[in-house]
Fold this protein.
Amino acid sequence: MSGSDTLNRALFDDVMVPNYNPAAIIPVRGEGSRVWDQSGREFIDFAGGIAVNCLGHCHPALVKALNEQGNKLWHLSNVMTNEPALQLAKTLVDSTFAERVYFANSGAEANEAALKLARRYALEHHGEEKDQIIAFTQGFHGRTFFTVSVGGQPAYSDGFGPKPGGIDHLAYNDIEGFKALISDRTCAVMLEPIQGEGGIVPADAEFLRQVRELCDQHNALLIFDEVQTGVGRTGKLYAYEHYGIAPDILTTAKALGGGFPIAAMLTTAKVAASLKVGTHGSTYGGNPLACAVANAVLDVVNTDAVLNGVAQREAQLRAGLEAINAKYDVFSEVRGKGLLMGAVLNEQYKGKARDFLVASVDEGLMCLVAGANVVRFTPSLVIPEADLAEGLARFERAVAKVVNG
């Protein structure tokens, strides 16, 4: 037990900025795919800290890496490099299309770096007229002012004054609209292979293929935001591997540290050359503690056993959700890839995703929403079959509760 008498939900309202509205429960301990709150009540975790805890809570390999590094070296800044950062960069280069890596602390920071790099590359190679960034409605790329402006959800970017310019949005998967919008003025195209916050919407393979082709024709850089889809979430180390194409820049965060804050921007040597000394930086980027944990994450995740296991767990989760739907008729479809799944509410339950989330917590299950109409599931990539089954049983009780009022 912790100091639950004083460290309670009411204290949040007294001491925290009110931009969040957290649940009443306060978790204090986790192990694997189970979490316990201050009163000792147990929950099954289908949320994973929003696709972050890719190996569940307190995975032994991650705890070991953190403890070992914690007894060696915590921080240097980028005045010097360090061994964990070098090892992590080498692993990422060896495992992907990339030739160069930049480390940051969050997905927003990695995306900020990617956008700045794309603009700088276009300026150096093509001139200042080539500044257009194309992105997609319902996309989400972080909360810095640049990334939230590129993200296609005005509710997140309105109300903070003039926005960065040169950014155009169009509907996701709309290839005809994209053909009409892209030109030699386009410096970069940014997209998620599966839109996460926007409702777990997968890209059409042909759409991605043609976007890649058109970017090449117009000398535009293609940026894949794999903050949510990366590090095994879809059954490949990165989702671009499913499509037979590679981006010019890829961003990764969330699951990269398995719960420890870290992010990276991956790119080619040619593109990376535009971020010369002094053009961009981060005090904590490449922190030894974070990189040591991320190395341990990749050692576990980037294996056939774990990546193949994602497909097996996807099949179990999808079948379970479809069985629930056959009984209660609440979803119009179950979509997504790997363990990034969305149950889309049908017309009768439109706008009620949060009701299902709240009912789930009451039944001892942690899940997420992706907008008002999608219940989102991002469990651990190694969640035991028994925990998946029990979580689905709890979710079924939550669905019944919502349906029966």
Q: What stands out?
A: The longest helix spans residues 304-328. The CA atoms of residues 177 and 359 lie 40 Å apart. The first strand starts at residue 27 and ends at 31.
